[in-house]
């Protein structure tokens, strides 16, 4: 299993921050996923070994956290908040709009692998609702037109 | 902690401070309902069934997580509490498939009980229940998610209790699900502890599923017939066309030395009893082929033939090989039969531990032997050799949980990194095969330290270890068959320098210890008495052959030269288990008494179909010396218990069976009217003894209790409380006799693991399916972690 | 990047450096940064704790516990190391304030954590930031590195002989992990399942050592209290509710945004003046005053001071400062459903009442909203919620039950209207196409 040098460096450093090795697990899983797209059996095995855990323990942890996935997602993961503050300002409509524009449902990935779509819980942008996160980027105060622009932007970026 | 006073439902209760409230309630006779609480497992507070009212606390509190403090005032039932619990049950039922009529747990389900208690059956929910298909995780374990109430008992017993950690929880919220360690299947010790502890029917066993309903079974407490640890197991039996069929094994009555524990063998590997290859009719070799015959014909043939050899060539031309799996009474009877009826001391068995040396080393200090229960409570344990996790599952459980719950210190000396090192406070790894050297070092041979040094355990660490051990009080020293003969003597000597040290000598089969204790030796009478010290027995039995007999190897050795004309093999498969060339026995008349067509049975002249330990009554002695009852559960038409077969053979050989088994109103002597020796003129001592002990004279020659009486009377170390024993309690026996130093090479370990059980294991479909399921799994440590 | 707003009624303490570039350590120093810690290093730990106690600062994470009092529970002598843990998991729907603090003033959180650590005698602190806030994690990591580079962290800080390490830690998507004991589990690399309490974290926390857990805003307030004094801080709000707090105004408002207002500020004013009132000509229907977990107030009930005790008296809670305005176009059933969907999704699943209860409430509300409701459902929902209340393993169960009870009780007629209409009588919530231009 090969991770980037930055990953390795960060891993080494983080492990030294805690009295137990497994403490780095949650952030490390997210960093690993950022590099590999999803948490494959191989990644799980590798991290389990490094942290002296069973694969089962690692899987148990992964399945608890909603950002972590053991299945590939799109290059751009479009996460539409539909929680209450966003609901009041059109979160569901934005989600519906993304569904139609991308031609996929929540939890699905476009056939070109570029986009995946998810309805998510509050992302901490309530005062700027409705809000969407594409990977880690926040997009707020959205309208359908705004959303079109954003998707267009990623599509361009992704196909360059 | 000091006692505190609390009030529960207006009753004053005194208990040590820090006791869990739920336990304090139990002590006061008040049952607080619980799903997730389980004694000796970590606390969860998850099911919220144990909610009670504690004065001055606004919210209801969980009795399972609250520790009592002085002055606490508790109410365990009120309309509010009742409603809270009812609410929990209603919620559980919301997603619970109400398939009780077909569920394996139906009738012994804790959720069913609670539903009944709290009147929560009327459903408030009309929405669709969440569904998942049932999964098979292994040949043993099936999981049905909708029935699971997420009490996490299974996860904890597997991890905390078994140190296997094969179960976890995946997902969260209502999607939470118990998950096996290999995504869609389990790789574990298959002990079934999770199934046993599951309060509902979510985990079920492949061995029992949908076979029967609890109330259709009869339950028989008996002792496991596999390894030498002697777990109490409860067999569920049901009438079947060919007798009584065993359909389930478990330990619902947790009173045995094993408490909550059973391994896969004790719990599920009873199925050998119904294996299709079970011999159900005597077989006699006719025209070179084993041919079915009647019992009368077979017994008559064997009895006469034995008598003939004895009378014409002498008893020394007959050999007897006994069993590690027959009862004490049968073993005792067998050597008595050999010595009295066949007039031979050629008696032996497959020896897996050097008990005669143990007896010799202890030199009468039988009180230095530890019980299986003591292993769970000892403040410190030294384990030398063996791999209890694989070979002594119960012992391993006792050790692990002693460390976990009582913070016992465990010292391990083993050339292999055995799994119990994980519980060890000190693990010393000598070079391969040099456990005995380690004993020499402990006993004071300074020079041995260098020979023991390895990269993981340098010489200094060995010295540290010895220092630490020397400061231990109440140490239990447990050793495997690596330690034999004079090494054993050194070990006992070392132990004797410590305050209160006790020993456990590990043997391999269910009644290996009993076989040794009962004198299945060519040179030792029961209780490790050398032949020339057997006055006690001579007084009782009459004249015995004086010359030392042949051991197993010697018997085989002379067989081919015509030195052994007849060989009687009872419940043993030397050809299958020991390196013996069958050709050597081609000239000997061989009688095999067994359940299956084993390698040894295949060359026999007569095969007598025997009942196994689950099909008869008697006693077993486990490797620690704990004496326990074996009770009849199953029955296969056509077979007979070894006890009965031996008595009938004696009779067929023309022997007066009253001399063999003290039965009838006046017992052996009275009936023989004998008056001789020191006790001349004294009334029947057997009858006197029985009366003195408030026991009934035995009326049937096939009642093993008659022999148990004799064992208690004559075998040193077996003077136990009969009433306790009959009540189902284990009784500790000790190793008392003078013992003997034997050739250490006579010990041949069985090398069984969790999923094998000598020849017997080969006839367990369940064990085989597990072995198959595990193909490709590296041997050794079952689990990571 | 989040937009900043302002209003004349604001009292900017925690937000005083927002928009001023304090993300740079030099700028932070110019703006009074790292002065408070230097001051505290010369103080007695007990004095510090008393100062915080007297300031009336109450936890900004939701429960509103007096911060100084919490610190005082940490044993002076402990066999295991002590820790400070900053809770930056911010996930309560309606709450988006810690995000602004991390974005604009990360050093204030660090400095607050330093003061807390020194006061309780900890030598290690962690700043836990939810996984979704990656850009804030980067900001925090940089801020920590800068502080180390200046020698403000590590050995012998400011020549005091006191050693302190502060590390960043990240989550990966789980609301429940914001609950303090689940937070520790998560930090220890486990599933976010809460722990049995007692013992409380201040006594037995991370790896068994005493641990002070505070919300990011709570910690960011600390340096200001040290510099301005307890009396000054306490005087900003009503008794026992010291200081100011960041209110996150959201929902049907003209000027949603995060405003720093004194404790006890009137809610009605907050909605109609600070938040600019309801867009269009629609009327206010209800306000969720402190994040999704707090029982809603009807439009008639909002003339109330926004402090912990006053709201408690009105049967609601100040919570995490998320003020959500619902106008008359809102379907309460739909709103209740979306709220419950959240709790059902975020329940850790550990205990029966929350795991099963949230699922059943969600199912029932969904069916009900879609027109499949029956009359019995309304009382069943109340029955079920009341059975959850106070009986779960952690407060998430209460957080799910309390708002539901309020919705059903206060808007029963709306539920009934769904029965009569065999569906939702409301228009869809509707995108506010023309958002007021902010910033
Ligand atoms: C379900 C749940 C979620 C919570 N989420 C957060 C959170 O995201 N951030 C936070 O600071 N506190 C959260 N809390 C409150 C914490 O448990 C804890 O009270 C708080 O971090 C203490 O800090 P404070 O005293 O400074 O408020 C949550 C509580 C519960 C029950
Ligand atoms: S499978 Fe059984 S023991 Fe395990 S959590 Fe579910 S109900 Fe409890
Ligand atoms: S540990 Fe031994 S005695 Fe106990 S159940 Fe297993 S095989 Fe039987
Ligand atoms: S109330 Fe129970 S199930 Fe819900 S989050 Fe807390 S512990 Fe988990
Ligand atoms: S509700 Fe959507 S960001 Fe908070
Ligand atoms: S038994 Fe107490 S919560 Fe389950």
Structural account:
The complex is a heterotrimer of chains A (160), B (785) and C (439). Chain A is of the alpha+beta class and 160 residues long. In chain A, 48% of the residues lie in helices and 11% in strands. The two termini of chain A are 28 Å apart. The mean pLDDT of chain A is 97. Chain B has 785 residues and is an alpha/beta fold. Chain C is built from 17 helices and eleven strands. In chain C, helix 2 packs parallel to helix 6 and helix 3 crosses helix 6. Chain C is globular. The chains are: A alpha+beta (160), B alpha/beta (785), C alpha/beta (439). Chains in contact: A-B, A-C, B-C. At the A-C interface, helix 2, helix 4, helix 5 and helix 6 of A face strand 3, strand 5, strand 11 and helix 13 of C. The complex binds flavin mononucleotide, iron/sulfur cluster (3 copies) and FE2/S2 (inorganic) cluster (FES) (2 copies).
Characteristics:
heterotrimer, A: 160 residues, alpha+beta, Arc Repressor Mutant, subunit A, Glutaredoxin, 2 domains, four-stranded mixed sheet, 4 strands, 11% strand, B: 785 residues, alpha/beta, Ubiquitin-like (UB roll), Alpha-Beta Plaits, Rossmann fold, 4 domains, seven-stranded mixed sheet, five-stranded mixed sheet, 28 helices, 31 strands, 30% helix, disordered C terminus, binds flavin mononucleotide, binds iron/sulfur cluster, binds FE2/S2 (inorganic) cluster
């Amino acid at each position: 299993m090969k991770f980037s040098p930055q990953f390795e460096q960060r891993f080494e450093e983080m492990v030294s921050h805690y009295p137990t090795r497994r403490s780095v697990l949650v952030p490390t899983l997210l960093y690993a996923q950022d590099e590999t797209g999803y948490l494959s059996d191989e990644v799980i095995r590798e991290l389990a070994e490094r942290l002296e855990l069973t694969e089962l323990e690692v899987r148990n942890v992964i399945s608890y956290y909603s950002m972590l996935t053991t299945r590939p997602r799109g290059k751009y993961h479009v996460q539409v908040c539909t929680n209450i503050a966003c609901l009041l300002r059109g979160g569901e409509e934005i989600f519906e709009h993304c569904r139609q524009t991308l031609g996929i449902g929540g939890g699905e990935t476009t056939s070109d692998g570029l986009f995946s779509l998810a309805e998510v819980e509050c992302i901490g942008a309530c005062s700027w609702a409705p809000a969407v996160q594409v990977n880690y980027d926040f997009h707020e105060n959205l309208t359908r037109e705004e959303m079109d622009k954003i998707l267009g932007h990623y599509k361009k970026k992704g196909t360059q | 902690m000091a006692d505190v006073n609390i009030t529960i439902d207006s009753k004053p209760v005194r208990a040590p401070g820090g006791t869990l409230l739920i336990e304090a309630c139990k002590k006061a006779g008040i049952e607080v309902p619980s799903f997730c609480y389980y004694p000796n497992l970590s606390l969860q507070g998850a099911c919220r069934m144990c909610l009670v009212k504690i004065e001055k606390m606004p919210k209801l509190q969980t009795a399972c997580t609250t520790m009592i403090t002085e002055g606490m005032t508790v109410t365990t039932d009120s309309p509010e509490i009742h409603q809270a619990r009812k609410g929990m049950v209603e919620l559980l039922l919301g997603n619970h498939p109400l398939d009780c009529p077909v569920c394996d747990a139906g009738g012994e389900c804790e959720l069913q009980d609670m539903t009944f208690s709290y009147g929560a059956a009327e459903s408030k929910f009309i929405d669709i229940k969440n569904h998942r298909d049932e999964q098979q995780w292994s040949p043993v374990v099936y999981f049905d998610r909708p029935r699971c109430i997420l009490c996490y008992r299974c996860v904890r017993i597997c991890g905390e209790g078994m140190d296997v950690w094969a179960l976890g929880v995946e997902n969260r919220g209502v999607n939470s699900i118990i998950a096996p360690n290999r995504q869609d299947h389990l790789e574990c010790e298959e002990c079934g502890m999770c199934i046993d502890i599951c309060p509902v029917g979510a985990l079920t066993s492949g061995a029992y599923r949908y076979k029967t309903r609890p109330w259709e079974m009869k339950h028989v407490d008996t002792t496991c017939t596999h390894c030498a640890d002697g777990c109490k197991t409860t067999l569920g039996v049901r009438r079947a066309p060919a007798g009584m069929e065993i359909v389930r094994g478990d330990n619902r009555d947790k009173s045995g030395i094993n408490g909550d524990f059973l391994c896969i063998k004790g719990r599920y590997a009873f199925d050998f009893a119904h294996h299709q290859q079970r011999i159900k009719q005597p077989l006699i070799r006719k025209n070179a082929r084993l041919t079915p015959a009647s019992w009368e014909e077979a017994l008559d043939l064997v009895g006469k033939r034995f008598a003939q050899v004895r009378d014409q060539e002498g008893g020394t031309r007959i050999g007897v090989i006994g069993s590690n799996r027959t009862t004490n009474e049968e073993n005792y009877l067998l050597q008595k039969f050999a010595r009295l009826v066949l007039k031979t001391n050629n008696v032996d068995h497959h020896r897996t531990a050097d008990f005669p040396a143990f007896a010799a080393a202890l030199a009468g200090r039988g009180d230095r032997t530890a019980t299986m229960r003591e292993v769970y409570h000892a403040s410190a344990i030294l384990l030398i050799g063996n791999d209890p996790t694989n070979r002594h599952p119960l012992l391993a459980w006792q050790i692990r949980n002693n460390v976990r719950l009582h913070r016992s210190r465990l010292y391990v000396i083993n050339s292999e990194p055995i799994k119990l090192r994980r519980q060890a406070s000190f693990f010393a790894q000598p070079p391969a095969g040099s456990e005995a050297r380690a004993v020499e070092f402990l006993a004071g041979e300074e020079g041995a330290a260098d020979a023991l040094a390895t990269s993981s355990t340098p010489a200094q660490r060995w010295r540290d270890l010895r220092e630490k051990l020397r400061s231990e009080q109440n140490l239990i020293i447990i050793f495997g068959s690596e330690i034999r003969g004079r090494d054993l003597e050194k070990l006992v000597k070392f132990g004797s320098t410590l305050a209160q040290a006790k020993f456990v000598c590990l043997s391999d089969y269910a009644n290996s210890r009993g076989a040794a204790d009962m004198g299945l030796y060519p040179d030792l009478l029961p209780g490790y008495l050398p032949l020339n010290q057997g006055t006690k027995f001579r007084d009782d039995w009459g004249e015995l052959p004086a010359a030392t007999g042949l051991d197993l190897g010697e018997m085989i050795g002379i067989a081919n030269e015509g030195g052994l004309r007849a060989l009687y093999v009872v419940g043993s498969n030397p050809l299958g288990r020991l390196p013996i060339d069958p050709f050597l026995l081609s000239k000997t008349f061989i009688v095999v008494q067994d359940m299956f067509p084993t390698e040894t049975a295949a060359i026999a002249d007569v095969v007598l179909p025997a009942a196994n330990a689950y099909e008869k009554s008697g006693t077993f002695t486990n490797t620690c010396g704990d004496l326990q009852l074996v009770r009849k559960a199953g029955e296969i038409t056509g077979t007979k218990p070894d006890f009965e077969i031996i008595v009938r053979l004696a009779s067929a050989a023309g022997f007066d069976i009253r001399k063999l088994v003290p039965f009838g109103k006046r017992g052996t002597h009275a009936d023989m009217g004998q008056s001789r020796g020191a006790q001349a003129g004294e009334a029947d001592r057997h009858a006197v003894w029985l009366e003195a002990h408030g026991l009934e004279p035995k009326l049937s020659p096939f009642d093993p209790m008659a022999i148990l009486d004799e064992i208690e009377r004559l075998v040193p170390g077996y003077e136990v409380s009969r009433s306790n024993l009959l009540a189902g309690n284990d009784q500790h026996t000790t190793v008392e006799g003078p013992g003997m130093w034997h050739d250490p090479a006579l010990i041949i370990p069985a090398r069984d693991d969790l999923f094998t059980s000598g020849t017997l294991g080969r006839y367990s479909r369940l064990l085989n399916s597990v072995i198959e399921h595990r193909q490709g799994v590296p041997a050794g440590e079952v689990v990571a972690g | 990047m989040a937009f900043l707003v302002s209003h004349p009624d604001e009292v900017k303490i925690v937000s005083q450096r927002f928009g001023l570039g304090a993300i740079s350590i030099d700028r932070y120093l110019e703006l009074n940064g790292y002065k408070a810690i230097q001051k505290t290093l010369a103080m007695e730990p007990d004095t510090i704790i008393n100062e915080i106690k007297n300031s009336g600062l109450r936890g900004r994470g939701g429960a509103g516990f007096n911060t100084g009092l919490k610190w005082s529970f940490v044993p002076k002598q402990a066999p295991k190391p002590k820790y400070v843990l900053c809770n930056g998991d911010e996930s309560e729907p309606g709450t988006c304030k810690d995000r602004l603090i991390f974005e604009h003033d990360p050093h204030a959180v660090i400095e607050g954590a330093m003061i807390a650590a020194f006061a309780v005698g900890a030598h290690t602190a962690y700043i836990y930031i939810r996984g979704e806030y990656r850009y804030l994690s980067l900001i925090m990591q940089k801020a920590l590195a800068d502080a180390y580079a200046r020698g403000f962290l590590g050995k012998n800080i400011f020549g005091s002989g006191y050693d302190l390490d502060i590390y960043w830690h990240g989550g990966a998507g789980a609301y429940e992990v914001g609950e303090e004991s689940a937070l520790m589990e998560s930090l220890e690399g486990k599933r976010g399942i809460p722990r049995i309490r007692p013992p409380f974290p201040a006594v037995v926390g991370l790896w068994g050592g005493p641990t002070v857990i505070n919300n990011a805003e709570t910690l960011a307030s600390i340096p200001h209290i040290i510099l301005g004094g307890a009396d000054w801080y306490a005087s900003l709000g009503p008794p026992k509710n010291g200081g100011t707090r960041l209110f996150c105004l959201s929902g049907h408002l003209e000027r949603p945004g995060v405003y720093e207002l004194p404790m006890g500020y009137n809610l009605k004013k907050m909605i109609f003046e600070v938040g600019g009132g309801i867009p269009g000509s629609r009327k206010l229907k209800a306000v969720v005053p402190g994040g999704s977990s707090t029982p809603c107030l009807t439009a008639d009930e909002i003339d109330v001071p926004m402090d912990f005790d006053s709201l408690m008296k009105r049967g609601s809670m100040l919570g995490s400062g998320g003020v959500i305005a619902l106008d008359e176009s809102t379907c309460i059933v739909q709103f209740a459903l979306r709220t419950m969907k959240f709790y059902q999704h975020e329940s850790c699943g550990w205990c029966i009442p929350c795991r099963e209860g949230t699922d059943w409430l969600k199912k029932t509300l969904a069916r009900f909203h879609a027109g499949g409701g029956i009359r019995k459902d309304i009382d069943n929902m109340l029955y079920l919620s009341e059975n959850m209340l106070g009986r779960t393993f952690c407060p998430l169960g209460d957080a799910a039950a309390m708002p539901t009870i309020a919705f059903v009780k206060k808007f029963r007629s709306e539920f009934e209207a769904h029965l009569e209409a065999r569906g939702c009588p409301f228009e869809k919530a509707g995108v506010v196409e023309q958002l007021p231009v902010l910033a």
